[in-house]
């Protein structure tokens, strides 16, 4: 099942894409991320995020497994994390022009009703966070 969220951002597609593809600064746009560390650049880049969700504190480790500059799209694989997040692949795409962009964040996976709500909430948080960050 495909779960997808999108947001229109009042910033150029190039600006949003150039920020997104580095995987830098997740804590700047995702309120559940308290710290992130990026290693490498381009395909194969890894990121470790310290996450706090209410009383829960944990780490996720991600790898940039697909990167297409010409289409402004990428895929991040969550290689390690709590059940329900581990092994997820999250797809990102950015479209637009010099004045505004649309970001689409999606995941295709077999979800339970509970995990579907969790993933939908995370994808929405990513879209909203990127919109707020780039419109500051």
Outline:
This protein has 136 residues and is of the alpha+beta class. The chain is 25% helix and 44% strand.
List the helices and strands and how they pair.
Layout: E1 2-9, H1 13-20, H2 26-29, E2 33-39, E3 46-53, E4 56-68, E5 73-80, E6 89-96, E7 101-108, H3 113-134
Antiparallel strand pairs: 1-7, 2-3, 3-4, 4-5, 5-6, 6-7
Question: In one word, what is the shape?
Answer: globular
Report low-confidence residues grouped into runs of 5 or more: none
What is the average per-residue confidence, as pLDDT, rounded to a whole number?
94
Question: What structural category do the secondary elements indicate?
Answer: alpha+beta
User: What is the element string, with H for helices and E for strands?
Assistant: EHHEEEEEEH
CATH architecture heading: 2-Layer Sandwich
DSSP, total strands: 7
Q: Which fold name corresponds to the CATH topology?
A: Alpha-D-Glucose-1,6-Bisphosphate, Chain A, domain 4
Helical amount: 25-40%
Oligomer: single chain
CATH superfamily: START domain
What topology, given as strand order, has the largest sheet? 1-7-6-5-4-3-2
